């Protein structure tokens, strides 16, 4: 970083920018309408970064602009910033309506849309102007930024990323607008389709697990999980995407656990609005409204003790079977009685498996991990040899947990798993004698192995399971 005493002197005249946003048609400069908030984020080349933010759905993004901040030179030019002699980073000013989109939604997009561990670089771009940063305007923003940074750091670690987050968090000084031709650059005719961001395909953990207590209610996310299922950042996603904001109709709210019975449907209709499907944070309320605080089958004692359904019926029963937190109480080896088996199927990493299965409640192997193993090759072998399905065993105990594909083809099972990044099972493919779903959607074995999460989509419950959790060999018992 340049010494402030050696930084370029700059100028007193600000850049001229268009009065209206090229896509959103709102004002580009303050004053802003009452009730709007401003935050500034830097995650690599600002062309793609800006497009990612202005496309967030629901009308919550009022305006965006690219510019320079966190340096020393007033009103720098692009060439001066690229020289490294201003101390600035390329950044995006986001003006948003907190009644329509939460800062937590914006931060989740920020973290997931780049690699925040690259220091003074992002992808193929190198220099202080490409460093990651978030710049706050009040104490609440700072608390949410720091909380999300800590949570994302743990998520990256659990996914096997060993480098620390280098994102700068600081109060916002002056945001200097970049030249007019940089504003909404990717949407303009003749634009070079370039974005150097390097998303890591790791999700920010659910807000309720890291929310600063005083801010939890006021800043709960407004974008449902269904949005992230369809539109989560991936490499070059902004280059491939239309320029207009994402349509709300393009995704469905993620459905929480619901029983299929008529009585359950009636109870759901009577549930508080915050506990109904589409409310990402109403799972506990929904469970209470639907089941009176107990499981739909078996109750808390059944879930906690691991008492089983009749073995002959277990593979046929419709799920989910809800368990309680006592399943995951501390035991001899994390949440389990034993560690993972010494050797796992499909060349899965034993150390990663042990960490995820036994010392983890929130995080996952990285998206697409199963594609780097022998799993897909084994699926193709099973299909060629006419096997009806493949069995998946607990990596700790060797007990059978899943069998797939059932009621669909191998191709459909694999295609869906690739789409979502993890082996994805449906209700009929779960052995409900051995698997439980906790009220917050976490999937576990009755022995206490963390398996993954239930992430419902338009086709029903979808159990996204870590391959390392179900790569065991069958128990000899």
Verbal overview:
This protein has helices spanning 46-54, 78-82, 103-112, 139-158, 225-231, 237-240, 262-270, 283-291, 299-305, 311-314, 350-358, 375-384, 410-420; strands spanning 37-42, 61-69, 89-96, 121-122, 125-126, 133-136, 168-171, 176-177, 390-393, 400-404, 424-425, 435-437, 442-445, 450-454, 463-465. It is of the alpha+beta class. It has three domains: 4-250, Peptide Methionine Sulfoxide Reductase, Chain A; 261-293, no CATH class; 294-469, no CATH class. β6, α4 (139-158) and β7 form a beta-alpha-beta unit. α3 packs parallel to α4 and α7 (262-270) packs across α8 (283-291).
Can you summarize this structure?
The chain is of the alpha+beta class and 477 residues long.
Strand content: 5-15%
CATH class of the largest domain: Alpha Beta
Total DSSP helices: 13
CATH H-level name of the largest domain... which superfamily? Peptide methionine sulphoxide reductase MsrA
- The helicity comes to 10-25%
Spatial ordering of strands, largest sheet: 7-6-1-3-2-8
Could you say how many structural domains there are in total? 3
Mean pLDDT: 85
Major pleated sheet? 6 strands, mixed
Distance between the termini: 62 Å
Tell me the structural class: alpha+beta
Which term fits the overall shape? elongated
- Given as residue ranges, the uncertain stretches (5+ residues, pLDDT < 50) are 255-314
Which CATH architecture of the largest domain is right? 2-Layer Sandwich
- Order of SSEs, N→C? EHEHEHEEEHEEHHHHHHHHEEHEEEEE
Quote the CATH topology of the largest domain: Peptide Methionine Sulfoxide Reductase, Chain A
DSSP, total strands: 15
Report the radius of gyration as a whole number of Å: 24 Å
